Amino acid sequence: MKATPVKGTADYLPSQTLLRDYMQGVILETYRSAGFERILTPAIEHLENLEKSDGGDNLNLMFKIMKRGEKLAEAIAAGGQENELADLGLRYDLTLPLSRFYAANRAKLNNPFKCIQIDKSYRAERPQKGRMREFIQCDIDILGSESPLCELELIHTTATALNRLDIGSFTIKINDRRILKGCLAACGVAPEQMDTVCISLDKWDKIGAEGVQGELESKEIAADVVAKLMTLLGGERSLESVQALCGDTEELTRTRQLIEDVRRLANGSYDAEFDLLLVRGQGYYTGTVFEIQSNKFRGSIGGGGRYDGLVGKFTGENVPAVGFSIGFERIFAILQEQGYQIPTRQRRVAILCEETEAVQAMQLAETLRQNGDSAGLYTRPKKLGKFLNRLEEQGFDGYLVYGETDQPKWFEEK
Amino acid sequence: MKATPVKGTADYLPSQTLLRDYMQGVILETYRSAGFERILTPAIEHLENLEKSDGGDNLNLMFKIMKRGEKLAEAIAAGGQENELADLGLRYDLTLPLSRFYAANRAKLNNPFKCIQIDKSYRAERPQKGRMREFIQCDIDILGSESPLCELELIHTTATALNRLDIGSFTIKINDRRILKGCLAACGVAPEQMDTVCISLDKWDKIGAEGVQGELESKEIAADVVAKLMTLLGGERSLESVQALCGDTEELTRTRQLIEDVRRLANGSYDAEFDLLLVRGQGYYTGTVFEIQSNKFRGSIGGGGRYDGLVGKFTGENVPAVGFSIGFERIFAILQEQGYQIPTRQRRVAILCEETEAVQAMQLAETLRQNGDSAGLYTRPKKLGKFLNRLEEQGFDGYLVYGETDQPKWFEEK
């Protein structure tokens, strides 16, 4: 049998689990305090729903679950291909299950519905530091409202949680897909070229201006259009330069106001700025998109946006929706690397006793627990010194030999 | 797209999620206080490990994950059957992953290792109330010790958690598989008949003495053996009657002492008794087995036992191990049915404001949050009365119209 976990998944030791539980606790408490309500949805989802969900690249990274029993036997006998052999899949994010949940339970929910999801998702990606095949996502979403209040609440609440986790300074990058598309149209990009041009622009940070230009040329975008794009994007890419190009659109006004409001609320505790090149991968985003950039560590530590069309795929009518997701695994990796110490921790005491003293030792343990400490029993070892060293290494704070004393001896006092 | 969750899985509404989070919090806090440490393992496991795990019936209920990419294409092209098409599976319990975890991480763990696992498992069972295909298990296990202290700690800690959850009175049934097998041998059951006889005996509660007798006869167990079995099992099945039949074995002494110790510790807060017919399904149990019976609701609400052989399948050497699992979904179903109210709950306030007041309203919300309340923003609606009724229905405790007052109006004061 194989002792290592499945590729891209991880076992977490007690100290790592403490940190993960602490992080989830801080995030959940921040979100609940801000008036969001947690829901739970299954990790297994109808394959049909996943396939139809506009999940972009994530659809190619899905773990699919085989049919069972006779249905499987029939599918194999009929020479079934991939999607005939499977009927379920592990979800690749929490947004699709939320949309399904909302469609099924709408009548029982508050409107607008402010929702928390903290749970596992799965993607068969190439694993790297902070990117796992089984990973926790922490999302807040607001469904049923078009108001820019939603974006403001989501951004500020997420930023508050991150500040409480002490991950260092960060910047919220904000864009609206319609602004970018407006600019592209103004530069002469045809509607049918929009998506492929966006895919190239998304690589600006990775391959630079020249790389993007080369890609656009190879995609046979007209030379004058490419030239206009490079002038616009090579410049300062500010809200002002967009306004000069496209005039003052509704989405521009809304985005300007949002950034201003976020900055006032942040009051210096984090930063927010316009980023014309921010696209975000998922196909389902329709308006505002945002992303969190750590100023200390490379790469995104969170992101989200408006996806006004997705819930409608279930309900048939349009339900405005916007969400923000924290990159839990990335932040966990950062905190762990920093040797982050959890601020409050229960003291741990080992009670050493003979088997014949078990009941009395357990009773003594309960009095220690009533003080808020953690206390467990261990058979009194022959070599006490070695055992105590091991306890201290393992993060115990003290011990007590039953029958000798009823107060713990703390290791720091030695 | 399908709006209902996958068969045997469930969506949980905010009020249900609050209860589930509360239950998990109580259980985790109780376990941590008793000196156990939480670990996390992936829900996806090597199919090979699952298949070799002595999981009994659970192996037939597995969700298997298909291979991906080229490997899948090759397997399909080669006319691959079920286990050639899949390489991973969803775990059916937390004991197998724990054994794998212990084998991989033993050097970094305390010895004995007292471990908490609260996480999802999956079985493609026929769903019924309190039995789901995706379900939470809450386990504590002690690895690396043969001491009966382990059984005592596991039983009392589990019982303490259940008492804190207020599920009404319950009884811990205790047996040792070796005691039952000793009795069967004394009645003349041959070694190779042991397992099939145990399977029939396990149905005693369901099909009664006559049903069991019929089954044993149909399995061609000799008439005099069946007669002896029926005399023994039709009697009071006490520790004393076992002693009279088999003499005083080590496991009998140990079980007697354990039950006595548990009763002294329980001090009337729960009951414990010997149950000669307790077998438990999993093939991997080797010694003590236990189960929790609610005195109010039918069926088991938890169970466990010693599985001294399982970890050795990974490490090659024998590691004694014992664990206890709470039937989380069953207890959740019971508490929900009772209309259980969580003892402490954050007050929830809705702040109604115009979009232009967003920043100031958010600042006011933060002062409410500092009092421990939950506060979120809502666009001020045209029909205030209807909106407030809806808030109250949804479990809000109060509201505040920004600009009119800076103190919430509580619904109960109306």
In brief:
The structure is a homodimer of 414-residue chains. Chain A has helices at 14-33, 47-51, 69-77, 82-85, 95-105, 148-164, 177-186, 194-201, 204-218, 223-234, 239-246, 250-266, 312-315, 328-337, 358-370, 384-393, and strands at 37-38, 44-46, 64-66, 86-90, 113-122, 134-143, 170-176, 271-274, 288-294, 300-306, 321-326, 348-353, 374-379, 398-401, 409-410.
Report on this model:
- The structure is a homodimer of 414-residue chains.
- Chain A folds into two domains: 14-337, Bira Bifunctional Protein, Domain 2 (BirA Bifunctional Protein, domain 2); 348-413, 3-Layer(aba) Sandwich (Rossmann fold).
- In chain A, 42% of the residues lie in helices and 20% in strands.
- Chain A has helices spanning 14-33, 47-51, 69-77, 82-85, 95-105, 148-164, 177-186, 194-201, 204-218, 223-234, 239-246, 250-266, 312-315, 328-337, 358-370, 384-393, and strands spanning 37-38, 44-46, 64-66, 86-90, 113-122, 134-143, 170-176, 271-274, 288-294, 300-306, 321-326, 348-353, 374-379, 398-401, 409-410.
- In chain A, the strands form three sheets. Chain A has an eight-stranded mixed beta sheet, sandwiched between helices.
- The radius of gyration of chain A is 27 Å and the shape is globular.
- The interface between A and B is large, with 102 and 102 residues.
